Amino acid sequence: MxxxxxxxxxALSIAVVLQRRLLNAVVLLGVFSLTSSVIYFLVxxxxxxxxxxxxxxxxxxxxxxxALSDQGKLHVIAEEVPPFFFxxxxxxxxxxxxxxxxxxxxxxxxxxxxFLSRQEVPARFSGRRGKVLAGAYFTRSCTDIDPLESEAYxxxxxxxxxxxxxxxxxxTTAGLDVAELxxxxxxxxxxxxxxxxxxxxxxxxxxxxxxxxSARISYALKGINSIxxxxxxxxxxxxxxxxxxxSREEPDLLEEVNEHLDELERxxxxxxxxxxxxx
Length: 279
Fold this sequence. Notes:
By secondary structure, this protein is an alpha/beta fold. The protein contains ten helices and eleven strands. It has three domains: 2-68; 73-154 and 241-277, Periplasmic binding protein-like II (D-Maltodextrin-Binding Protein, domain 2, 3-Layer(aba) Sandwich); 155-240, D-Maltodextrin-Binding Protein, domain 2 (3-Layer(aba) Sandwich). The protein has helices at residues 2-18, 22-42, 46-68, 95-106, 121-125, 195-203, 214-223, 226-230, 251-267, 269-277; strands spanning 73-78, 86-88, 91-93, 110-115, 132-138, 148-149, 154-163, 173-175, 189-191, 209-213, 232-246. The strands form two sheets. Strands 1, 4, 5, 6, 7, 8, 9, 10 and 11 form a nine-stranded mixed β-sheet that branches. The radius of gyration is 26 Å and the shape is elongated. The termini are far apart. The mean pLDDT is 82.
């Protein structure tokens, strides 16, 4: 019996050294301490066994787990924008989800995703948990943050959905913080934080046209009622590039993301992922 636990102790020590994820190593250290406690008991030192169990197994493991609870994770905050980042039947899917999942595996990190509304992004991204901002992000699409930006992984269009009954450059145009930045010639621009609110305003004829990137336009078209949609036309008015926003506190992560995107492109995996969702 004693020989078995001694061999187990040796195996655990090797496993701890070889473990690449810190949290897993801490758990194994807890098992190591528990095994040591059993060995102390078997050799006739119950007081040492109890001490090892109380301190090594419980207290020390708890402290390490608490300290590392926020480590070993790739924290991503995202606006839900199909087909780039979305939830379906309780599962997270999308182009960016697959790209970031592969990055997390490469870095031996657990991918942690938090979906936020557009209004919540600035506060969360400036905090310690928001390392990556995803969800069809493109340069200056969210003016309340000042992130580092990864290389672009996909080109898309900036588009306008306009009611045909309203002459161009008249009426009220609404956008998501992008129209003015793209130098568009419109008489009046209203800004919406929520795409759903923008769609509702268009359905209720409170606005005569809406401007957004192609991913959000595709989502918007599903929400525009059939009568309003039948009397609307879509016009491409510019080109944008989707990328990832990285916290300024994570410059090393930016290098990892760019290197990862380059590897995916060279291997053809990026095109496979894009083709899977953009048909």
